[in-house]
Amino acid sequence: MKILESAENYLEAILILNNEKGYVRAIDIVNYLGFSKPSVSVAMKQLETNGYIRRNGDGHIFLTEKGMKIAASIYERHTLLSEMFMSIGVCEETARTDACKVEHHISQETFEQLKKHFHNQKNSR
Questions:
Q1: In 27-40, which positions are buried (b, 16+ CB within 10 angstroms) versus exposed (e)?
Q2: Which candidate, 111, 77, 110, 83, places its Cα nearest to that of 95?
Q3: Structural domains in the chain?
Q4: Other C-beta atoms within 10 Å of 80: how many?
Q5: What is the DSSP secondary structure assignment for residue 25, as one 8-state letter?
Q6: What is the mean pLDDT of the chain?
Q7: Over the range 44-66, which residues count as b (16 or more CB within 10 Å of their CB) and which as e?
């Protein structure tokens, strides 16, 4: 299932914010991503319509199983790619920025092979 890169970014942000704070509201996403309130509102409505999130009466946002699957996959890619880039000498800020660009475009096959190679390299040290 392929969704837009922007939707992947929103889902990943919801996962990260929920892990950090224990809850997520639209304003948290606005502050985290630096987007406008109207943009986040439109995105949340679309994510909810497509079954990736649900919202309660208090305005809290939750990932559905479908949304969690995508968010966790993108977050794993981001984390591993950042770690790989830093391990070869890239500064943390650049590594995280570049990982964010790559995480959306790398094939699952290539990612799995990179992950296997990186873990083998770490274990052989």
A1: ebbbebbebeeeeb
A2: 83
A3: 5-69 (1.10.10.10), 75-123 (1.10.60.10)
A4: 17
A5: B
A6: 93
A7: beebeeeebbebeeeeebebbee
Closest to 8 measured CA to CA, from 80, 99, 103: 103
- What is residue 75's predicted lDDT score, i.e. its pLDDT? 95
pTM for the predicted model, two decimal places: 0.87
- Burial class for 108, CB neighbours closer than 10 Å (0-12, 13-18, 19+): exposed
Write out the H or E segment, with its range, that includes residue 61.
strand 61-63
Residue 56 tokens, joined: 């309660």
Give the pLDDT score at 2.
57
- Return the residue matching tokens 């809290």: 60
Share of the chain above pLDDT 70, in %: 98
Chain segment 14-42, per-residue pLDDT in tens: 999 999 999 999 999 999 999 999 999 99
Q: How is residue 74 written in tokens?
A: 């993108």
52 pLDDT above the threshold of 90:
yes
